[in-house]
Amino acid sequence: MLKVFSHYLPSHTVQQILFDALLLFVAVLLAVFMQLQTEIIEWRVLVPSAMFFALSMVVLNTAMGLYRSAVRESQRGAVARVVLSVVVSVPVAYGVFSVLPWAEPSNVSVQISVLVLLGFVLVMRGLVNRRQASALFAPRVLIIGTGGEAAAVQQALTHPVQSGMEIVGFYSPEKEGEVCVDSGRLLRGSNLLDVVRRHRVSEIIVAVKERRGGVLPLRELLDCKVAGVRILDLSSFFERVQGQVRIDSLRASWLIYGDGFRQGLARTVVKRFFDIVVAVVLLALALPLMLCTAILILLEDGAPIFYRQERVGLGGRVFKVIKFRSMRRDAEKDGKPRWASSNDDRATRIGRIIRKLRIDELPQLLNVLVGDMSLVGPRPERPFFVDQLAAQIPFYGVRHCVKPGVTGWAQVRYQYGASIDDAVQKLQYDLYYVKNHTLVLDTLVLFETVRVVLTGEGAH
After folding, report:
1. Does residue 134 lie in a domain region?
2. Number of structural domains, the chain?
3. Are 310 and 382 in contact (CB under 8 A)?
4. CB of 28 within 8 A of CB of 21?
5. Domain check: are 358 and 386 in the same one?
6. Segment 342-394, tens digit of pLDDT
7. Among candidate residues 94, 128, 162, the one where a domain is terminated
8. Is pLDDT larger for residue 234 or for residue 107?
9. Is 247 inside any structural domain?
10. How far is Cα 152 from Cα 180, in angstroms, rounded to an integer?
């Protein structure tokens, strides 16, 4: 895993991105050279222009989710993802060609050649990502523990996103008797460092929940770290691998002393400026769609068009969120709050459509301009459910140390949630965002939101 602007990227994904960027860079150079063999080529102009073109294309498609592993993705989802990448990339590539200082080499034949190759690269990358990916120089991982935590780590590492990491085996501490993993992969040895050297281990993951009473060989772990082996605990492992902070492996001391959770003035000012600029642009672009939606709501179910509801925001402060009304006017006629679900029978016909396409969320851009919300952050919840969730879920209140968002890391990583268990899963992603949020991660979430909406994925 590589940490880029506080966000982790799988090593095999970085290798794919670099390979595709190099391929496009070389393709542009070859296309120009073959078309203009007898003419003078301005290499000082061509090389940086080709490099910018290649990098801009891979960055765009990374944001659109092309490089996300899709082994367990449906055929429809894979096709939609590749089609979206091609449809977005080709016009953008044509625009990039038009503005770059190519001089004379930027003729029509060169553009067509490179655009065709770009489409081919995108399609092939989409097909390759449906197969098990691997990375060069894949780290060899030893898991300490044999219980449920070790099994959870194994499952996470064998997920397609982490297929580039090789599990060497499991090392059992003397006092841990439960075995929830394959007993044939247990590694024996009187000394942990000897086991690490014998199996050429480069990373150790400590998957032991109980650390007191001599369960862990602390002296041997220190010897391994001094020898250059990376050592991760459960909290750090799940943050790095799955983009979430796991509640079941989290301790208050890790939140207090760990890196992240910085809410400085500079970060707040930059995020606010970003929110205002992007919200204004999105409102201007979405205005015709919002007017059309308002008319359809009026025609089907009458007024009101908007729905205002109390939500909990920054610091636990209550504010009123604005949405297009997607449910019947008597949706909660008994006065009892209910979880919203993906196929809620209270939704109107227009409401089901605008909820599926996330159009009902567009008026929240006004909440962003006012300052109650941010574009990206944990989704705001109703006070009734916040009280319920805070009483049952540890660290739930931590999500309120940043502004709630129109969209969020949890929304693009997890399907629609309508229960306590779903709230726990989403909180784990929210904690990751609160800990690591940067302008880069916000931009990535916005692109991922566009992809989720256009490909019809179930996240909400």
Report:
1. no
2. 3
3. yes
4. no
5. yes
6. 566 678 888 888 888 888 899 999 999 999 999 999 999 999 889 888 888 88
7. 128
8. 234
9. no
10. 10
Same domain, 211 and 307: no
Claim to verify: residue 167 and residue 103 sit in the same structural domain: no
Q: Which of 98, 99, 110, 91 is nearest to 39 (CA)?
A: 110
| Distance from C-alpha of 393 to C-alpha of 417, rounded to nearest angstrom | 15
278 and 366: one domain? yes
Q: Which of 75-84, 167-176, 426-435 has the lowest mean pLDDT?
A: 75-84
Residues 69-88: what's their mean pLDDT?
66
Together in a domain, 116 and 64: yes
- Structural domain for 172, as ranges: 140-242
Q: Which two tokens stand for residue 155?
A: 């499952």
Q: Could you tell me if 29 and 84 lie in one domain? A: yes
The predicted model scores a pTM of: 0.78
Query: Is 135 part of any domain?
Result: no
Closest CA to 233 of 260, 251, 256: 251
Mean pLDDT of 202-226: 81
Confidence of residue 306 (pLDDT cuts 50, 70, 90): very high
Residue 77 and residue 84 in contact, taking contact as beta carbons nearer than 8 Å: no
- For the cut 60, the answer to whether the pLDDT of residue 181 exceeds it is yes
Report the b/e string of 382-399 with b at 16+ CB within 10 A: beebbebbbeeeebbebb
Q: Say if residue 123's pLDDT is above 70.
A: yes
207 within 8 A of 145, measured Cβ to Cβ: yes
What is the per-residue pLDDT for 366?
Answer: 95
Answer yes or no: do 283 and 392 share one domain.
yes
Confidence at residue 258, expressed as pLDDT on a 0 to 100 scale: 65
- Other residues' Cβ atoms within 10 Å of the Cβ of residue 53: 22
Q: Clarify whether residues 195 and 318 are in a common domain.
A: no
> Is the distance from CB of 352 to CB of 255 less than 8 angstroms?
no
CB 178 within 8 A of CB 148: yes
Assess if residue 115 is contained within a domain: yes
Average pLDDT over residues 129-146: 71
